C-alpha cells in the first residue's frame, strides 16, 4: 500500500495541474456555452465567418474560454474554430527574433568604465507558457539581457572583455536560457557587438602599443646590426689573407657605383702600386 501512495499523490497532483491549466467552466459557463451555440446556429452563415480563424505556419493560437485557457496545446497552424462570444485567442510568433541590447555603461573589475552593447536571438518554444507566465515576453527578455550583461561584465577585467568575447557570450547565453525557460523562451545566441572605451583610455592604450612597437623595433634593429657586424668581421678576416682580394673588392665596388650613378669617379692609385713604382 505504501508503494502505491506516491503514485496516488502524483496522480492527484497531475489532476490539480490539469484543472488549473484547463479550468472548470461551472454552471454559468455551461449556460453561456449553450447561448453561444444557439447564436452560432441562428446566424449560421455569418457566425461561421466569425468563428473560423487561421494562423500561419510560424504561429500558434492560445485560446481562452470565458477567461480560462483551453486545455491542451496551442492551436495551429491552419484552421481552427472559436465559439462566438465566449472564446478569444492570442497568436504567438514562433520565429527567431533578434533584440538589440542598448549600450550599457559598465565598470569593469579593474575600474575602467566602458560602454558595451550586444544582440540576442530568441525563439518561443511554448506558446501557452509565454502567454500565461509573463505579461510582455519581449520586453522582459530585453530587460533581463541588459541586466545580465552588466552583471557578467562587471566581474571581468578590460583585457578579458576585449579578448574573450566568445566565452562571455556563451556565459550570458547559459544564464539567460536558465532564466527564460519558465517563460517558454529559448535563447539561441548572444553576441557582443561593440565595446567603446573613453577617449583618454584609447590614447593611453595607443601610446602603450606605440611604445611597445618602438622597443621591439629597436631590439630587432640591434640584433640585425650585431649579425651584420659578425658577417663583416668574418669577411674582413677572409679578405685580409689575400691583398689582391681587397683590390678586387675595391674595383667591384667602383663598378657598382658607376652602374648606379653615372658620375665622375676619382680613382685613387693603390699605395702598394706606388711603392713598387718608387722602388724600381
Characterization of the model:
The chain has ten helices and eight strands. Helix content is 56%, strand content 21%. The longest helix is centred in the C-terminal third of the chain and has 42 residues, at 199-240. It is of the alpha+beta class and 280 residues long. It is rod-shaped. It has helices spanning 4-22, 26-42, 44-51, 127-132, 137-153, 158-163, 165-180, 199-240, 243-260, 271-279; strands spanning 52-55, 59-65, 68-69, 78-81, 87-93, 97-107, 113-124, 185-196. Strand 2 (59-65) and strand 3 (68-69) form a beta hairpin. Strands 3-2-5 form a three-stranded antiparallel beta sheet. Strands 6-7-8 form a three-stranded antiparallel beta sheet, covered by helices on one side. Belongs to the band 7/mec-2 family.
Please give a quick description of this structure.
By secondary structure, the chain is of the alpha+beta class.
Largest sheet descriptor: 3 strands, antiparallel
Strand percent estimate: 15-25%
In the predicted model, the low-confidence regions spanning at least 5 consecutive residues are 1-22
- The separation of the N and C termini measures 136 Å
Q: What's the rounded overall pLDDT mean?
A: 78
Q: How many β strands by DSSP? A: 8
Biggest sheet, spatial arrangement of strands:
3-2-5
Q: Number of helix segments? A: 10
Category from helices, strands and their pairing: alpha+beta
**Secondary-structure element sequence?**
HHHEEEEEEEHHHHEHHH
Q: Note the quaternary state here.
A: single chain
Spatial shape: rod-shaped
Keywords: Membrane, Transmembrane, Transmembrane helix
Transmembrane segments: 30-55
InterPro entries: Band-7_stomatin-like (IPR043202), Band_7 (IPR001107), Band_7/SPFH_dom_sf (IPR036013), Stomatin_HflK_fam (IPR001972)
Pfam family, one: Band_7
Amino acid at each position: 500500500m505504501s508503494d502505491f501512495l506516491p503514485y496516488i499523490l502524483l496522480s492527484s497532483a497531475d489532476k490539480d495541474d490539469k484543472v488549473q491549466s484547463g479550468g472548470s467552466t461551472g454552471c454559468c459557463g455551461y449556460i453561456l456555452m449553450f447561448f453561444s451555440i444557439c447564436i452560432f446556429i441562428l446566424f449560421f452563415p455569418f457566425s461561421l465567418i466569425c468563428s473560423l480563424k487561421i494562423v500561419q505556419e510560424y504561429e500558434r493560437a492560445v485560446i481562452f474560454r470565458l477567461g480560462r485557457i483551453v486545455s491542451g496545446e496551442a492551436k495551429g497552424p491552419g484552421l481552427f474554430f472559436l465559439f462566438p462570444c465566449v472564446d478569444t485567442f492570442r497568436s504567438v510568433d514562433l520565429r527567431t527574433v533578434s533584440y538589440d541590447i542598448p549600450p550599457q555603461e559598465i565598470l569593469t573589475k579593474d575600474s575602467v568604465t566602458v560602454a558595451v552593447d550586444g544582440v540576442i536571438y530568441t525563439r518561443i518554444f511554448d506558446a501557452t507558457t509565454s502567454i500565461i507566465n509573463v505579461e510582455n515576453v519581449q520586453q522582459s527578455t530585453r530587460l533581463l539581457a541588459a541586466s545580465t550583461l552588466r552583471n557578467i561584465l562587471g566581474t571581468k577585467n578590460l583585457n578579458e572583455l576585449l579578448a574573450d568575447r566568445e566565452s562571455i557570450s556563451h556565459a550570458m547565453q547559459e544564464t539567460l536560457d536558465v532564466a527564460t525557460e519558465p517563460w517558454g523562451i529559448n535563447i539561441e545566441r548572444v553576441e557582443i557587438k561593440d565595446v567603446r572605451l573613453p577617449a583618454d583610455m584609447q590614447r593611453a592604450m595607443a601610446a602603450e602599443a606605440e611604445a611597445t612597437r618602438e622597443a621591439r623595433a629597436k631590439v630587432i634593429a640591434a640584433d640585425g646590426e650585431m649579425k651584420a657586424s659578425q658577417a663583416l668581421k668574418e669577411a674582413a678576416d677572409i679578405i685580409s689573407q689575400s691583398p689582391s682580394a681587397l683590390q678586387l673588392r675595391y674595383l667591384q665596388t667602383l663598378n657598382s657605383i658607376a652602374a648606379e650613378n653615372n658620375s665622375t669617379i676619382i680613382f685613387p692609385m693603390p699605395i702598394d702600386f706606388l711603392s713598387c713604382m718608387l722602388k724600381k
